[in-house]
Amino acid sequence: MKRVLITGGAGFIGVHLADRLTRDGVYDVTVLDNESLGDRSHLDLDRVRFVEGDLRDRDAVRRALEGQDAVVHLAAHTRVIDSIVNPAHNFDNNVIGTFNVLEGCRELGVGRVVAASTGGAIVGDVPPPVHERMAAQPTSPYGASKLMMEGYLSAYAGAYGISTCSLRFSNVYGPRSYHKGSVVAHFFKQIIAGEELVVYGDGSQARDFLYVGDLVEGIRVAVDSDAVGAFQLGSGKPTTVNELLELMRDATGLDLDVRYEDFRTGEVRYTWCDIDKAREGMGFDPVTPLDVGIRQTWEWFVNHRAQHTARP
């Protein structure tokens, strides 16, 4: 049985990944999380070992890493706008946190690290589709922190022989994303609250939306593969915000009230990714159509709105 640590494993993607890895009885899963956003109650604690701790605490990281075969490093500060407001906090979490994970792996002999990265925020506002060969030119502290993370992964692979892989996620959406700031989650929360939806820009900006079930299958494949370097994980298809709103109208059956505001500084306007390298290099194969994923996500939000809106 392969022993896998998931950092940030009590969050949106981590809970889905823990469920997937424990489903077949092939993996022994440990989760490290400080519960600043995640919640251990969302995990099946009969099948998952939980370690409470922060990536900036090297002792907590070492406790979680003891005896592991591989690490899926998801824990991070991920909001672009927040990174612009407070770049130091972003750096501490994403760069220092990653360094502590890699140092723990080096000291304890953990041989495989698969880390969550980003495509658009690293390469900046370039003509899409985004691919792994593009030169890095981040436009936000968040993008810069992920570029530094990828650099350290490469360095520890070269210097210490740790097998490392960076997965550049596109815009991930799906059930259990209530506390995320992603556009799908944010819009659904506004709809449930009966609020006007605010679009920054004219709605023509495009993103690559990837259903969380397809993402975690890609992560699982990466954990078991020998793939090294950076890989784009997305749907490989562009969707504008206005197109997304139409799918949300269809899913909710509501006539949505939308207000358009100016574009925000630091955000990429058009980005989607080329996933050929991930398809060929490790068999990544997203299968969930966007309309199906949006409908499933909306159903989850509706079914769980009481427990979330009741929280302070």
From TrEMBL:
InterPro entries: Epimerase_deHydtase, NAD(P)-bd_dom_sf
Signal peptide positions (record): none
Domain NAD-dependent epimerase/dehydratase residues, every copy: 4-225
SUPFAM superfamilies cross-referenced by the UniProt entry: NAD(P)-binding Rossmann-fold domains (SSF51735)
Family classification: Belongs to the NAD(P)-dependent epimerase/dehydratase family.
PANTHER family given in the database record: DTDP-D-GLUCOSE 4,6-DEHYDRATASE-RELATED (PTHR43000)
Protein name: NAD-dependent epimerase/dehydratase family protein
